[in-house]
Amino acid sequence: MNNFSATYTDQYQLAMAQVYFKKGHKDHQAIFDYYFRELPYNGGYAVFSGLEYLLEILSNIRFTDTDLEFLKSQAFEDDFLKYLKDFKFRGSVYSSQEGDIIFPTRPVLQVEANIIEAQIIETILLNLLNFQTLIATKASRIREVAGHASLLDFGLRRAQATGGYFATRAAIVGGFDGTSNVLAGKEFGIPVSGTMAHSYVQSYDDELEAFRDFAAGRPKDCVLLVDTYNTLKSGVPNAIKVAKEMEERGERLLAIRLDSGDLSYFSKQSRKLLDEAGLDYVKIAASNQLDEYVIKSLLEQQSPIDIFGVGTNLVTGDPDGALDGVYKLAYSNGKPRIKISESIVKITLPHKKQVFRIKDDNGKCIGADAIALSNQERVMQMFHPFEPYKSMELSKFHQEPLLQKVMENGEMLINKRSLQDISAYSRERLSELPLEYKRFNNPHIYKIGISGALRDEREKLITTYKEKLK
Amino acid sequence: MNNFSATYTDQYQLAMAQVYFKKGHKDHQAIFDYYFRELPYNGGYAVFSGLEYLLEILSNIRFTDTDLEFLKSQAFEDDFLKYLKDFKFRGSVYSSQEGDIIFPTRPVLQVEANIIEAQIIETILLNLLNFQTLIATKASRIREVAGHASLLDFGLRRAQATGGYFATRAAIVGGFDGTSNVLAGKEFGIPVSGTMAHSYVQSYDDELEAFRDFAAGRPKDCVLLVDTYNTLKSGVPNAIKVAKEMEERGERLLAIRLDSGDLSYFSKQSRKLLDEAGLDYVKIAASNQLDEYVIKSLLEQQSPIDIFGVGTNLVTGDPDGALDGVYKLAYSNGKPRIKISESIVKITLPHKKQVFRIKDDNGKCIGADAIALSNQERVMQMFHPFEPYKSMELSKFHQEPLLQKVMENGEMLINKRSLQDISAYSRERLSELPLEYKRFNNPHIYKIGISGALRDEREKLITTYKEKLK
């Protein structure tokens, strides 16, 4: 699934590219910043996801002959189509690592390439990074509240068509343990698991017989769904009978699953029945419209739930439909570039840049990233990007440069990690962030500043354009 | 993109299928209902989408050799894997037509197949129909308020990864005219269009020169983005200069695009400037966080906008992340089946069924669909599905059967229509629905009832299971 057509783009990228081509701008070098403006979920951080997948796509993306035929039918010109026939992304990418925690305004990634290549890849870059970062962030929030419980992605049926495949990938980056999605499991090496559906139990005349057959068929990972008819009067007692029969065969029932009703009440009652039957090893799985708030509440009520299956709210990123990531020109043809706007927060930052994470002597984040020009090695003082009188002294802190060159001439420079490794890295980075940035209600605001040199460069450009308009 | 692996499913489908296989249930015939419980957007109707695409998938879906190897590594057994090697969907599908308006509780589609096939396709069926129905419904709401304006899908960059491709398909079903998504345009025969990005204008030292080059490159569909620096002082005056130069060459500027600021104010001011310059034929396109409410308000303010580009809120279905469509067993192995629940609205409807749309003598919907047993030709009286004392006389009305056989033995029985034809059908069906069901605030509730015969069958099953639990 990593063989994408370069037509996975917006038409205007190609329209602009053709103009660049015809006007002889095709070798103009450009730098674009990828960043977002608002944290999802009113949260305190986001988890960057999609990078390693994107880099694979970028190293493979091409126009096929049928793509070019289609573009010809769309009035693109022959000399330009001939150029596209040899299209390949040959640029460089500077980026935060996948799994790192990221914050608004600061470049998360920079693309440096000729302007045609940089423009054609914009759409797929935004498409893959925005969505996976949204879902990894959601998953990370759920992981934060779930303690030692297992977290499984059950979302494919409510996912946005094939977007579900990417949702699963991002869920693992954010801290989930496994998925029900067989294809994603196969492609990404993710542990795949599942239980049974109500339809399975319904298809039998008798719940006990249904459970028995299932245990016989899956003795090593048997999970019985206990709420088809009546959880405490029928489902759990039948599961206990089957668990006892399994014991006689030297097997162990892995878990029961609750999928309706008050999960706190039913998990406690079920735990009691299981324990009374000597089945303290049988786990309890729960599903049904879960999200970080419900799971937090269930665990605060000391609900004995060991496994959470999370579906719709995970894979759709509900209640936020999208991360508002953008891709803005910062430099082209030897000159810094800027977009002016009536609203100062929409004015872009010119030039190639570096971003520093500010840390104390113990390696803990102090809650600030500083954006600098790429040739700055440290930032002594950072300024609020939009409020000129706010600044912060940084000279006494450690400064970790965040943007690393991860692609050069269209070739990946980093080794691909497993999703589990990316996830472990993400958890480690998150552990450097103080708790006040992780709470759900009014989290502390992580500071993003710009260096004096960058601020001055931006001011110069704004002044130039204001002069022009007079 | 219609070659899906049968591993595009939840693991439990395969776990259950293996049990059915081993227990000799593999030829048990089953009937599943696809339906949803709540209308999205607190709206009065939904638009069914995804069917024709799904049927193509179902007629092609297989397990590849690498799929089977993967399943072997997941502890599936050899004899079952051998069976899966020849897997093909050989069932029948009875369905409402794609594009029809649909309502909660009533089956939108029924699958009749052996229980293994019916179970394995559940996930992809839900995945494709839930999402496309959600987005077609959103698109239809936007179409309802947009009058004669053109509606373009600009959402790919904020879409849920490759889900964006399906969002575009569904947007056309719901009433959109075109898309920026080149791949979707190519695959589905959708008109593709686009304008230019701010980065294009920024990449020039001079906005006027940027506009000139673009007009030279795309003389037939030139749209100029006028808000990079200053809409009224720079963008529109430069666009007017270029439009005049185009006139001298016998060309016409198609449109200008506004992407920020107060779209009502700027569209009126821009219209005035264009008209004063004799450019009354130049259209105005607008984009930036649009949805049905914003477009309705813009048009109520008489904003002279001819083209709306809708992105994030269309393709993500915001504010609703998903349609809650489910797939429930109604019949298997010669017996009607039911799922009991503490909550009556979650009790399923047994048996193979038909659904009738109730209409008056003029072919207008009276606002009711009646669910019957499949052998009933008419419904004389329908009952509220969950409130036993509510009923409605139907004998004097026309009754249109909604579920048609669209697939038999895994082969499509209907001719594939273009998306534009599906869309036209959808608009026609929507025109049969009175306005009170289409308003945004507290729309009138469309009635769904069940026939007396179906109600009695359900009661019988509930009684049987309650007896068992005593």
UniProtKB/TrEMBL annotation, chains A, B:
Reported modifications of this chain: Transiently phosphorylated on a His residue during the reaction cycle. Phosphorylation strongly increases the affinity for substrates and increases the rate of nicotinate D-ribonucleotide production. Dephosphorylation regenerates the low-affinity form of the enzyme, leading to product release.
Keywords, ordered alphabetically: Glycosyltransferase, Ligase, Phosphoprotein, Pyridine nucleotide biosynthesis, Transferase
Pathway assignment: Cofactor biosynthesis; NAD(+) biosynthesis; nicotinate D-ribonucleotide from nicotinate: step 1/1
SUPFAM superfamilies registered for this protein in UniProt: Nicotinate/Quinolinate PRTase C-terminal domain-like, Nicotinate/Quinolinate PRTase N-terminal domain-like
Keyword Transferase found: yes
Domain Nicotinate/nicotinamide phosphoribosyltransferase: 151-348
GO biological process per UniProt: NAD+ biosynthetic process via the salvage pathway
Annotated function: Catalyzes the first step in the biosynthesis of NAD from nicotinic acid, the ATP-dependent synthesis of beta-nicotinate D-ribonucleotide from nicotinate and 5-phospho-D-ribose 1-phosphate.
Family statement: Belongs to the NAPRTase family.
Protein name stated in the entry: Nicotinate phosphoribosyltransferase
